[in-house]
Amino acid sequence: MTRSARITFCLFVAASLIAPKTAASGEILTFEHSLHLDVLHEKNMSLRPSADTRPRDRQDRIAAKLRFSAEFDPDGPLTGFVEFELRRDIDDRQARPRETGTELRLREAYLELEDVLAPNLDLRIGRWDYEDTRRWLIDARLDGIWMRYRGERIEADILAARENQFREDLLDRESRDGDTDYIAGLFRYEINTQIELGAHAIWQQETDGNRDRLRLLGARAQGEALDQLSYWADVSWTETARNGRKQRGRGVDLGGKWQFDHPLKPRLTLGLVQGSGNFRQPDLHSNEGSLGQDIETFYYGEVLRPELANLTVLTIGAGMTFDEKLSADVYWRDYRLDNSEHGLRGAALRADPVSGGALGQGVDVVIGYRPAKNIAIDGAFGWFEPGSAFAGTRQGRAFAARLELTWKFWIVSKKFLVAQLAKAFHQTEVVCRAAGVNGIIARIGRTDRNPECDTCKPLD
């Protein structure tokens, strides 16, 4: 990271820290900060049986993240947004040295033009975060162009982008690894307040020597069939070309949730998904979202976390909301591998099945707690019991647990005044020094031009 980049980041933090603590109408510049702590614990992901005298593998991953964002929204068609993430990662795996790392990520940086070329047509250029409604197709930050049309009942997105075309970690010159182009179109039509239909097309092309590609076409329906029943249905067809060989596949994801009319909001969830051996999801998906209340979980299990390929998963869940702050859901899943030749794709397990058929069963417990509007605490625990597909090789139970803490706080700035910046220099001195900036406070902070500012004094 260059010296000028460190100074820019330091001043960005300084400006955000001094903004007034109350929002006002007509603000041009708005800051948002958030603290995140993600903890993941995995045990026996290689499925060693209990009779194995070797210690079961264990891995702990901790990520502490501090995010700073600023939105520029003047009275006009042009707006802008930028978000940085300063993070510290710890990876502790049994029988291996502990790995640590510090990153300064540029999460988003874009300009947006509203009503460009035509009414209700917006254009976004730069690095932006995009999610489809279920994150079954796309959940990623992309560099490129995003055009959206917003009608009364129709919404259409056109994307032309590349992942990590520019450096993601500003501290690492090698973090630019974008070698895949994406062109996508996602369309949604709201028939009424209870039924929404959608269609999507995604083209994925690698730019390296392999020139592998993926083409995906699909349709989606989601909404509420009754007052207490919500549902979703996704179906997609893919054609892939890898090493000159073309393959076609199909993926289906069906499910529904019935919520009873009771103060505890008891609910039942049922889901069935099937992906053929040659089906591939785009490399941008996360398969993570809400199945129960507002608690996010991995659609296909907390332990496996697989891609929907060569796999059939039956999900049965039950949960309730004890009050507006605390919710809990339990999910049972049955996994079947369609074809042993294609294996299990994208799973977190470090063991490979040796045959098709019964892959195993899993149980997940997902808990969400919202003590305040800007604080979220989510936890999940998962167990996986391998089936006959692992017979003769691995038969031990795997376990995974994760904890996610989020604290958001918003502050709004009125003006960039020298006096306001001077107030922040004391608070950001540690940040500046940590970023490798020495002497910046002494040079910029020498001001006593504002007699109403108690802290506008030379900083020696």
TrEMBL record:
* Secretion signal, residue range per the UniProt entry: 1-25
Which SUPFAM superfamilies does this chain map to? Answer: Porins
Q: Which UniProt keywords apply?
A: Signal
What highest taxon heads this organism's lineage?
Bacteria
Tell me where in this chain the Alginate export domain is found: 52-391
- Name this polypeptide is given: Alginate export
Q: Which organism is it from?
A: Roseovarius tolerans
